User: Fold this.
Amino acid sequence: MARAKKKAGDSTQGLVITLVFSVIIMLASLVAAYMGFAEQDALREEIARRANKAKLLEADRDWQMFQKLLFLSATGYPLTDEEKNTTLPSLSNRYDTGRLGANLTNKEIADKLIARVKNDLGWDPAKHQFLDNFFDRIKKLQDESKKLRETWQRQVALKETEVARLEKIIQSKDEAIAKYEKEIKALNQKDVVDLKGQTATFLKKVDEELQARANEINEIRKRHAAELADREKQIAKLKKDLEALNNKYQTVLVKVEPVDLLKHDKPKGRIIRLEGSGNLAYIDLGSADNVKPQLSFSVYGQDATGRPKKGKNMPRKAAVEVLDVLKPHLSVARVTDVVDSGRDPVLTGDYLFNPAWSPTLKKHVFIAGIIDLTGDGLDNTPEFIRNLEKQNIIVDGYLDLRDDSLPIRGKMTYQTDFLVLGEMPSLENQGQAMPNDPRNQRLTEIIKKLSEIQNDAGVLGVSIVPARRYLELIGYPLPKVFRKADYNAKTGLNIRYAKPMER
Assistant:
């Protein structure tokens, strides 16, 4: 029994010891495993650190290699084919794209230096090569320096030669001066006396020449005075001729008084309706009356008896210009040139006058003098002729003021109804001009021509109408202000002239 208990105690004790050793072994294994894993982590960190260092060293190597090859190429040092065609282009491309030299020390300084070298020598970005190098530039400078040195040496030699030549010339001049001084000193008193006598003779001749010139000037003055007297006589005669011509012109104006066209003319139509603010008017004339667009009329009112209110030189109240022909006896017209819309407005029933237009017969006119349509004092005869022909009026002829010879284009006949006469030239102060002044001569010729045309009108029984009055009566729009007619304007340069009419 006691032995059995003893065996049981031994077995338990062995089990405990076994468990203790097992625990110790397990702990030892755990410690060993922990230490092994810790060493592996440290090893991996060391490997990563060394790999990163190797990468940095490689990047620094490439950066140093790039700078080396780039600056060797800039100096002109020969590179191997691999360095020139492969290594340098590859590194240059990485540098251009920012993949080379990043985060390296002194990178900013190197970038500035590389940029300046590329800018100075020229850089081909496609081939990654310099266009020039420092060795070639140094050689060029050496060659140029050598040429300049040789040129300078030649110039120095030439200068020395020229200096020697000039010194010889100066020496010869000094010798000549010394010789002349001796000769002057050698002159005796007799030579001095002869020189004084020659001087007196010369001065006498000068006095005689001056007196002759003074006499010639006096003769010229006398001739000039005589010419001035003749010129004054010519001016006086010209004044007298101009005065006589002016008197003749005034006599013609008195004999041939302008006709009062309204006195013998009848209304051509009436305004039957106004529209809007009175700018459009319907008139009782149309296609049956041979009315065409652009035909114009003067507008006159009616008195208490319903008859036209007109009189000698009575101004119109407005003008109308046909815009469109609507029916045989109906047209629409634009109202223009209203004189006084407040006190004398255009009204329904007002009469239309145009002495130069007839629905059945074509009127004939002759034009002379400046026809001013714009108020600037210049001639608009060609434009006036075109407008008259649009109104079915025949222009028999006109005085062509553009031509210096003042020809008459066409001819005035017994069929001519009106002579439209422009403003006459003014003779005031024209006598102050010189006799041969072309402006004065032109005015004189124009006055003669206009006087002859008015005499012809009197012989043929043609009614004379002032141009402005004629324009007013036919309904032509007039400027508010007229400048004085300028017959001496350079009419050949007047852009408003049309192509000359030949009849």
